[in-house]
Q: What sequence folds into this?
């Protein structure tokens, strides 16, 4: 189906789907640990961005990738300097600044592969975060001023700083979640 056909169809569906190369793919729900990590990192981002020109959007926000060749959902998304929607839509974000994915065994290869490839092509994306479900660990890709990507890992007791100035404490993101059920490896 075409991108326009997908958007029209997907808006009527009870469940979310991602779109790649003319095909729609159903998205599965997350485990309690996955959902708690999303809630915690969203809370940290909202608090850290208060008073800035940036806002946090939930996992229900559709994102245009690769000139509308793909539509995806991230676990959390930040946009800065005003909301830009894909022309002709009222629900497709065109200017994500930071994108967060909580890794699951069923989605990790996709999050590290095709999704990451697409996010790199969005010129507004400055930070890409991959959050482990199994150990307190956040991987951070940050776009440098020359367009290259810097990679760093933060683990328990460590912090990392996003391009928009938000400082993420791994301990704060993982607070209270490790006792919750996670998707099996």
A:
């Amino acid at each position: 189906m075409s991108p326009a056909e997908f958007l029209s169809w997907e808006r009527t569906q009870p469940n979310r789907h991602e779109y790649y190369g003319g095909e729609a793919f159903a998205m599965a729900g997350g485990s309690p640990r996955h959902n708690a990590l999303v809630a915690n990192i969203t809370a940290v981002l909202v608090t850290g961005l208060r008073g800035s020109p940036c806002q946090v959007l939930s996992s229900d926000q559709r994102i245009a990738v690769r000139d509308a060749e793909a539509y995806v959902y991230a676990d959390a998304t930040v946009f800065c300097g005003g909301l830009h929607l894909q022309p002709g839509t009222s629900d497709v974000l065109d200017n994500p600044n930071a994108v967060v994915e909580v890794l699951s065994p069923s989605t990790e290869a996709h999050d590290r592969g095709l999704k990451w490839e697409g996010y790199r092509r969005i010129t507004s994306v400055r930070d890409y975060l991959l959050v482990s479900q199994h150990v307190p660990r956040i991987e951070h890709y940050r776009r440098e001023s020359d367009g290259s990507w810097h990679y760093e890992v933060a683990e328990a007791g460590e912090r990392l700083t996003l391009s928009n100035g938000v400082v993420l404490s791994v301990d704060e993101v993982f607070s209270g979640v490790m006792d919750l059920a996670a998707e099996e490896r």
Q: What stands out?
A: DSSP finds five helices and 13 strands in the chain. The first strand starts at residue 17 and ends at 20.
